[in-house]
Write a structure and sequence with these properties.
Blueprint lengths: L4 H4 L9 H6 L2 H9 L13 H4 L5 H4 L1 H21 L43 H13 L26 E2 L5 H12 L4 E6 L3 H18 L2 E3 L2 E2 L11 H4 L2 H7 L6 E2 L12 E3 L7 H15 L1 E5 L11 H14 L4 H15 L4 E5 L4 H7 L7 H13 L12 H6 L7 H10 L7 E5 L11 H6 L3 E2 L1 H4 L12 H13 L3 E4 L4 H12 L4 E2 L4 H8 L6 H11 L27 E2 L7
Parallel strand pairs: 2-3, 2-4, 2-7, 3-5, 6-7, 8-9, 8-11, 9-10, 11-12
Antiparallel strand pairs: 1-13
């Protein structure tokens, strides 16, 4: 039957599900694209019958045509329904990426690819492989044994808070004096705070209390650039300044800068000794302060006594737990990452102190290898001023006295002894450990669900805070404070601050390693695992964050032990 020229060149198209296209190898697909538009009649190509041979039996019989279409569609739907690889990420927070950045083409305006081939680089270093392994797990792309959810365990049980709740009601005398303090426009206190984030927090708390003692307005504290981290962040970069002023509006007037009337005033300068009382501060500074109008204080770390009148202790708690809220971008990012950790159940936050400067300052050794021990000893010899531990003690004496940070092996044994399940989800906070990722291998091998903020953050989330050590520490603080269980490997300002914060929030579980008493059992090879675990649990039965009275021991910080001044029982609690 004769056909027109136009009909001879007409092409026919078939709708094929994308799953079938993706299943075709790139070489097979390329052969389709490269095939000639016209072929001889005796060609053996299977595809020719569908696209060019209009005299084919399929086109002459409509039933065969529709049957062919039906079979293609049915096979495609069958493949889609039975596929084990869902197109939706199994981890609810991996909304923008399914693979690490180094495995995704980011070329702009690139043509859509019909398949993706992921090649493993077998020449990567061990720590790079480990990091990619952790990142994949953080995004929920790798199935780890026991990942169905964190198993129920007594490890997650919370201590009995005995009904204690925040109680920050000030006395009538304090409230009466507030009007006079807030009305004063003559005296302005300026402070320069130093150290890391949590050391600065402690000094800001004391600066507010000192301003109240002197009846002065507080100029927003100046954050001294940290000599170790080089972070130049200002108060408003880290903390919510408007919130800070608003919360303290009835206690101390906070101003952003000196008024024009005091700009040319030469300030009275001072640096108080350790543990001074309110009466010492008044007798030392008040007369000159009234005359000059500006007082500049430096080096406030541990300068104010820990034993203050009840109202000033309450003010300390009000600043530490209510007024010092992190700036909104930091708080929101910390909350998002914490939610990712919470998405599959409870999690443990570890504050690991394994950085080189920590080993140097404590006079301890990391226990990794003779090479790393030599690095620490050499640094200590070159900079003896960094050693803050007792210089007349040997390393072994410090270790057995509980003065050294726990290394990864010891943290692992302690957690296992306390009953932490193998599939426990662990967030680790802290700086880069000496020895890199390999220093963490003992922990990761026994607890494979082991993440840092870098593992959990989506691409670009941490970029605005790059090279901002204080802000990175603030993110760690938020995620650690929100955890179900928290444990530091060594004492320090962050651990103390979080201990008080968790107590004030209802005595959330906080494990204080009993290093001095437990370490001898670590070296006792005659103990069975069952005996060892029983001993470890007994040693820590009173070190799990239970309520403790600050007043049972002199010199305790109320921001670490908020009872009795800042918390009271249910029967007389006041909001």
């Amino acid at each position: 039957m004769a056909k027109s020229k136009n009909n001879a060149n007409k092409l026919s198209y078939i709708s094929v599900p994308s799953q079938i296209i993706n299943s075709i190898s790139s070489s097979s697909l390329q052969s389709l694209l490269d095939s000639p538009k016209k072929s001889s009649r005796n060609t053996n190509s299977r595809f020719f019958i569908f696209f060019t041979n209009t005299n084919s039996i399929i086109f002459r019989k409509p039933r065969m045509w529709f049957l062919t279409l039906f079979l293609f569609g049915f096979l495609g739907m069958l493949k889609f329904g039975l596929t084990l690889h869902t197109p939706f990420p199994p981890y609810p927070c991996a909304t923008t990426t399914l693979l690490p950045r180094n495995m995704i083409s980011t070329t702009p305006h690139s043509k859509p690819s019909l398949g993706a081939v992921v090649r493993e680089n077998n020449d990567q270093k061990k720590d790079e492989v480990l990091l990619a392994h952790v990142e994949l797990r953080a995004q929920g792309l790798e199935k780890v044994e026991g990942d169905e959810g964190v198993e129920k365990s007594e490890f997650w049980e919370q201590p009995d808070g005995l009904g204690y709740k925040p109680c920050l009601s000030f006395s009538r005398d304090y409230r009466g004096a507030s009007e006079r303090v807030l009305r004063d426009r003559r005296k302005y206190l300026m402070v320069v705070v130093s150290g890391g984030l949590n050391q600065q927090r402690n000094q800001i708390v004391d600066a507010v209390v000192i301003a109240r003692i002197l009846g002065a307005a507080l100029v927003v504290p100046i954050l001294q650039v940290n000599v170790i981290w080089g972070d130049e962040s200002e108060f408003g970069d880290i903390f919510d300044l408007k919130h800070f002023k608003r919360v303290l509006a009835n206690d101390v007037r906070v101003v952003s800068a000196l008024p024009s009337t005091h700009l040319m005033t030469k300030p009275v300068e001072g640096s108080p000794p350790l543990h001074v009382t309110p009466s010492w501060i008044r007798s030392r500074y008040l007369r000159r302060f009234n005359r000059e109008g500006v007082l500049l204080l430096r080096s406030l770390d541990s300068r104010l006594s820990k034993d203050l009148p009840s109202d000033l202790q309450k003010l300390r708690c009000k600043v530490a737990f209510n007024a010092l809220r992190f700036a909104q971008p930091i708080q929101e990012l910390g909350d998002r990452i914490a939610e990712r950790m919470q998405s599959k159940g409870p999690y443990l936050a570890l504050h690991l102190r394994m950085e080189k400067d920590v080993w140097v300052r404590t006079g301890c050794l990391p226990g990794l290898s003779p090479e790393f021990d030599e690095i620490v000893n050499s640094e200590r010899v070159q900079r003896p001023e960094l050693l803050t531990a007792r210089s007349n003690m040997t390393y072994h004496e410090r270790k057995m006295a509980g003065l050294c940070p726990l290394n990864a092996v010891e943290v692992t044994r302690l957690l296992k002894g306390l009953g932490a399940p193998k599939n426990a989800r662990i967030y680790w906070a802290g700086g880069q450990p000496l020895g890199g990722k390999e220093a963490l291998l003992p922990l990761i091998q026994d607890f494979p669900h082991f993440y840092s903020k870098e593992d959990l953050a989506l691409p670009g989330e941490l970029q605005p805070f790059a090279n901002k050590a204080s802000i990175m520490a603030a993110i760690d603080y938020i995620i650690s404070e929100k955890s179900d269980v928290f444990m530091p490997s060594h004492g320090g300002n962050m651990g103390h601050a979080i201990q008080g914060h968790r107590a004030f929030a209802g005595h959330k579980k906080y494990i204080t390693p009993n290093k001095r008493h437990m370490l001898p059992f670590f070296h006792n090879s005659s103990l069975s695992e069952e005996e060892f675990n029983k001993i470890i649990k007994e040693l820590h039965q009173d070190s799990l964050g239970q309520p403790e009275l600050r007043t049972i021991k002199a010199g305790r910080d109320v921001t670490k032990f908020p009872i009795p001044e800042c918390m009271c029982n249910d029967s007389n609690a006041q909001s």
